[in-house]
Fold this protein.
Amino acid sequence: MQATLTFLGTGTSMGVPTLGCACAVCTSTDPRDCRLRPSVLVSWNDPETQSQRTVVIDTGPDFREQALRAGIAHVDAVFYTHAHADHVLGMDDLRPVSFTAAKKSGPIPLYASLDTIAILMRIFDYTFSPDATYINRARVELKSLAAHTSVHGADFMRIPVMHGDLEISGFRFGSAAYLTDVSAIPEPSLELLKGVDVLVLSALRHKPHPSHATLEQALEWARKIGARQTWFTHISHDLGHQETNRTLPENARLAWDGLSVPVTL
Ligand SMILES: [Zn+2]
Ligand SMILES: [Zn+2]
Ligand SMILES: [Zn+2]
């Protein structure tokens, strides 16, 4: 099944431009140097119902703006990589689409690991608490993430990766994979990535960081995994779009907000 992978945001947790910074990348006029918080959209046409299916991976603090830009009118499911602010804080902005979804097909499923679910329940207590009385709360349902999850016939496989000391979730869907906030990829997870055609990896900057891969480390994984095309995301203001891409091989590039690539589910 043909699908489209759209980068809703390719920035690191602070976004680019970074508040209070006047560096060359933060003041760049190249729109590809403007990076909202990291998130992707997977969309495809459901052959059974002839309707557009939409899956979002992470809803960060910029989700509303990203959804408006991408023309997202409904969401079939959300997958969460982990519960850091830059990946979850936009959950509440699902409300308008969740009201429509609830009427048609029920609450929007939010798939996450149990530790991520526990944090989401704490942050959005007014939504998830059994005692929640807030009438306009998002019509969403937290669901424990299994090794495989099917969304209207498309399989999303969990790929465990390390983010510092934290085990978080990456995802493989068909011939594409999305791994963000990665500092190490365990050997069994590398096995799960065999045959990937389009690979997305986080690559923060050149300088080492305790819980994020450097661009050099991400490039090494890209070579090892051997996807036809690798796109880097979760990029800090240390990496200018054009100047960095000039140093990279043709099949490994910095992604940018709004980039859409075809993938096969
Ligand atoms: Zn992050
Ligand atoms: Zn800067
Ligand atoms: Zn993180």
